[in-house]
């Protein structure tokens, strides 16, 4: 499974790590994903969701 949020499609972003001497090295930023049980189409399923979507209430959790 990819490192992508199932709700907002937030994924990995790439860029450069820049040192004090302005040397550039490639690096990536990964989203803060949690594996949660959510109600999808009326039935509970496990999906990967970013913490921003969890906090904002975009996901209905299955208890």
TrEMBL record:
NCBIfam families reported in the protein's UniProt record: L28
Homology family: Belongs to the bacterial ribosomal protein bL28 family.
This chain belongs to which protein, by name?
Large ribosomal subunit protein bL28
Query: Which GO annotations describe the biological process of this protein?
Result: translation
Question: What is the scientific name of the source organism?
Answer: Isachenkonia alkalipeptolytica
Q: Which InterPro entries match?
A: Bacterial_rp_bL28, Ribosomal_bL28, Ribosomal_bL28/bL31-like_sf, Ribosomal_bL28_bact-type, Ribosomal_bL28_sf
Q: Which domain of life is it from?
A: Bacteria
Q: Which gene is this protein's source?
A: rpmB
Annotated Gene3D superfamilies: Ribosomal protein L28/L24
The question of whether Ribosomal protein is a record keyword is answered with yes
Q: Which GO terms of the cellular component aspect does the record hold?
A: ribonucleoprotein complex; ribosome
GO MF terms held by the record: structural constituent of ribosome
Q: Which UniProt keywords apply?
A: Ribonucleoprotein, Ribosomal protein
């Amino acid at each position: 499974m990819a490192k992508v949020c199932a709700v907002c499609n937030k994924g990995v972003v790439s860029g450069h790590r820049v040192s004090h001497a302005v040397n550039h090295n490639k690096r990536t930023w990964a989203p803060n994903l949690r594996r949660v049980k959510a109600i999808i189409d009326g039935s509970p399923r496990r999906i990967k969701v970013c913490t921003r979507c969890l906090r904002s209430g975009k996901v209905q959790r299955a208890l």
